[in-house]
Amino acid sequence: MFVRTIFAALLVCACSLSLSAQAADAVGEASPAGEASLAELARLRRLSRVVYTARYDGVRGTPYRYEEFRPGVVFDNALNRYALDSLNFNGFTNQFEYVIFGQLRELPQQNFLRADLDDGNGGRHVYAFGINPRFPTYYAELVYQGDFVTATMIYDVTNDVKVIQDVGRTMRLRRFDAKSLYFAYVDGEFVSLRLQPRRLAADLGHRGPLRRFMEDGDLDPSRRDDLLEILSFAERLYLE
Q1: What are the sequence ranges of the domains in the chain?
Q2: Residues in contact with 75: Cβ distance below 8 Å, sequence separation at least 6, in sequence order
Q3: Which of 180, 181, 221, 236 is deepest in the core (most CB within 10 A)?
Q4: Consecutive H or E run containing 97
Q5: CA distance 5 to 30
Q6: Is the pTM of this model over 0.90?
Q7: Residues 6+ apart with CB under 8 A from 32
């Protein structure tokens, strides 16, 4: 009950941020950082810090969620809104980073509650800090929100080290390993979501109808659009 209460309170906080953002421009229409006022830029600079660009030298892969930095909006603890034209999420540090005037800077978690990023398809990805009770010190993406089903995703990146023994020497190869971990609040219970059709149907509480729905529609939960369709159908089943 305590976990449910905490999750519900945090979700209300995230939703209140969403309502406050509705009065502002949509992410795709947000003014770039260069058009922000000097006061806003100065405040954002005080709340952020410079990133050491050579920190990942020798590590294969990338810690970033998106291949390219993209437009987005971040909200600080006082609900001030900052529109940025070059934003990304670092799953290794679990912080957002932005580029301004050629400088890469990161936004510490304690200063920013939420971020909205352009998803590249005319929509947006919404992240909020602390809304997933399994990962209370992480940002979680709010994947789907309904009355009975609310799903979040944790984008977690680790720095794996593989030790290779060669003739007369030992080599250590480092690479980033990214995982997308899905969870949902389903009819009052917080559960992990496994993105295999049979297991997902069980996790969402309507095994038979959901399995038939996925089979009939040839839906693959590992595809984002298909997952959203499955979650929406699960929500409708609870409403019946």
Answers
A1: 2-193, 195-240
A2: 17, 20, 21, 81, 82, 112, 113, 114, 115
A3: 221
A4: strand 95-100
A5: 34
A6: no
A7: 71, 83, 84, 85
